[in-house]
Amino acid sequence: YSHRDIDPGLDLSPGNRTLTLEVVTRDDSGLYQCGARNPAVASISAPVTLKAIPVIIINSNNSYLVKFTCNPNEADVNIQWFLNNAELPLSPQLSLSSDNKILTFHNVTRGDSGYYQCKVWNSVGFQESDGINLIVFCELEINSSLTLKCQAESNPAPDYTWYLNENSLGILESQYSISMASRNHDGNYKCTVDNRLAGKSASASVTVKVAGESWRDRLA
């Protein structure tokens, strides 16, 4: 071969002894061999297999039956799912397809919220997908009531603080109640728990979505 005979993404050294792939893509996968000859004899090397590191895309749908699909670009790969950067613990409401590509939530709940990724590897390398953030809302009918509870075991008793969309609600108790829900109650509620003596704190959050029409909406 000469430099003119090969793809622009490949480069041959003077004398054609070294073949360099500048940027390896999936299209470069395959068997590579080199041949040499002189007026007396010709020979060809044993083949070398080049496999590209897999690339993954996660797709999802939007319903109470939620499916995430991990789509590697290679067939012979291992797939594993992670939640919040830890190995995904399976539960009765979760299932995996036989090839681990499809993760199914059969009845999604708020407890399934989190950051999901699939990780794929083969004999050549390892790759992880971009993450997908699953947020499950707590849906509340307009004019209905709701009580959010925040529980923590601490000695001495901890201090509680409630926030709505990062703004303090001025509630310093372990629970927060909504007596008549309106659109003003939409948002992310967070409870923080502090043990000042031990210097430790923790927090938990839930997103509330108020659905339906109020009497003001109907009169408008």
From TrEMBL:
<keyword id="KW-0325">Glycoprotein</keyword>
<dbReference type="GO" id="GO:0009986">
    <property type="term" value="C:cell surface"/>
</dbReference>
<dbReference type="InterPro" id="IPR007110">
    <property type="entry name" value="Ig-like_dom"/>
</dbReference>
<dbReference type="InterPro" id="IPR013783">
    <property type="entry name" value="Ig-like_fold"/>
</dbReference>
<dbReference type="InterPro" id="IPR003599">
    <property type="entry name" value="Ig_sub"/>
</dbReference>
<dbReference type="GO" id="GO:0007157">
    <property type="term" value="P:heterophilic cell-cell adhesion via plasma membrane cell adhesion molecules"/>
</dbReference>
<protein>
    <recommendedName>
        <fullName>Ig-like domain-containing protein</fullName>
    </recommendedName>
</protein>
<dbReference type="Pfam" id="PF13895">
    <property type="entry name" value="Ig_2"/>
</dbReference>
<feature type="domain" description="Ig-like">
    <location>
        <begin position="143"/>
        <end position="207"/>
    </location>
</feature>
<comment type="similarity">
    <text>Belongs to the immunoglobulin superfamily. CEA family.</text>
</comment>
<keyword id="KW-0393">Immunoglobulin domain</keyword>
<keyword id="KW-0732">Signal</keyword>
<feature type="domain" description="Ig-like">
    <location>
        <begin position="39"/>
        <end position="133"/>
    </location>
</feature>
<dbReference type="InterPro" id="IPR036179">
    <property type="entry name" value="Ig-like_dom_sf"/>
</dbReference>
<dbReference type="InterPro" id="IPR003598">
    <property type="entry name" value="Ig_sub2"/>
</dbReference>
<dbReference type="InterPro" id="IPR052598">
    <property type="entry name" value="IgSF_CEA-related"/>
</dbReference>
<keyword id="KW-1015">Disulfide bond</keyword>
<dbReference type="Pfam" id="PF13927">
    <property type="entry name" value="Ig_3"/>
</dbReference>
